[in-house]
# Entry
Amino acid sequence: MEKLYYKKVIGMTFLFIGLLFLPLSFLKAQSSKNKKSKMEWWEHDRFGMFIHWGLYSEAAGYWNGKPVNGAGEWLMTDAHIPRNQYAQLTKHFDPVDFNAAQWVKIAKEAGMKYIVITTKHHDGFCMFNTKATQYNVVDATPWHTDPMKLLSEACKKQGIKFCTYYSIMDWHSPFQQADDTNAAHPTYNPTTMINNSEYLSYMKEQLHEIISQYHTHLLWFDGGWMKGWTADDAHEIYNYITGLDPNLIVNNRLEHEVGDYGTPEQKIPVRGLPGPWETCMTLNNTWGYKTLDTDWKSDTTLILNLIHCASGGGNFLLNVGPTGKGIIPQPEVDRLLAMGRWLKINGDAIYGTDRTPFHEALPFGYATQKPGKVFLEITQWPSGGKISVPMRNKIKRAYLLADKHDHLKTELTSNGLVIHLPVTAPDPVASVVVIEYNGKVKTIDGADN
Ligand code: FHN
# Structure
């Protein structure tokens, strides 16, 4: 009798614990399901425009008539400018040539599907209509215009996702202290938080404005390396903004392992990263406009970078730095339009694809995939007229994406699938061959994908 009693008690205990954990595991499963679904458009779109635009754009890399070393948007700290002197730039910020529709059109013609623009960079100047401070583009400049309103409307009209960058580190905030507080010659980076709760309230007020006024699809945080920014702060902000909009995507730069995707910068992880990731990169060497930085990357490099990101399952966020007058520099526009021309023919190999099915790098280029299709982005066109692909599937057909009707001769060998190619590559940078097959990719190393 006694044994039966104890068996019942033990059984009830396990049942109770199980019921406790059930909601937790259910909630965890739901949260991961929601994260996967909210990321779908972003993982499909692959290619976005980063825009660094602020008071520093007006300075263009100069201070007191002299060029300043470092990135354009770091002028305030690189030139050790006291806050009140840097703020004088507001008097000259009057971007009379700004045209939101034109900026979005350039992004669209480049094949970019989303825009991430700086609402507030480290300098603390707010490029949006905010009630939290007068230090903003509407109240503090002769322009008295809200570019974020105009851009978010233009994005909606042209079918581009509007997304926003927001720096946690704030070189103008009374709640953060410069690294070197020498009043005449301050160095700001990294600041130290001197009042977390006050600054978090300021952040929340502004993030609420950015989400409610512009319906941003994604928050790209930055500057979380400042001193005194805690894991609790990161979780508090993440929970606050995703509470306002559960579909909001958040990058990993709230730091402390908080966020939805990785953000390698100015480099592309050779084999990609596990999970969702996005490489951000400049067209020259500065994010914010600098007259003197004309070290532009070539069209070829940029197209190959995009392909490399996609083949690793990642996105490519390519930056433009408009001038203080609101013009995207022509060398940047020229390169973006060249990428758009490539994507017009080969976009099917980038948008909506997943990372390469192959475990080793390909000698002739890269690969991406969709169910039933492998796309080979061939950057080294073979002189011998054929390539060998490390797959052992009996395929349905292979063809050039640029000429779908001309099926290519193929043969299955012990070394994989040999594809015979025309003498001349359809594209000087990267030509795409499509392989259609049934089932899963069977790689020659025996794995099934
Ligand atoms: O310090 C910033 C920099 O100015 C720029 O905004 C880049 C863009 O990813 N993020 C920080 C450097 O990692």
Summary: The radius of gyration is 26 Å.
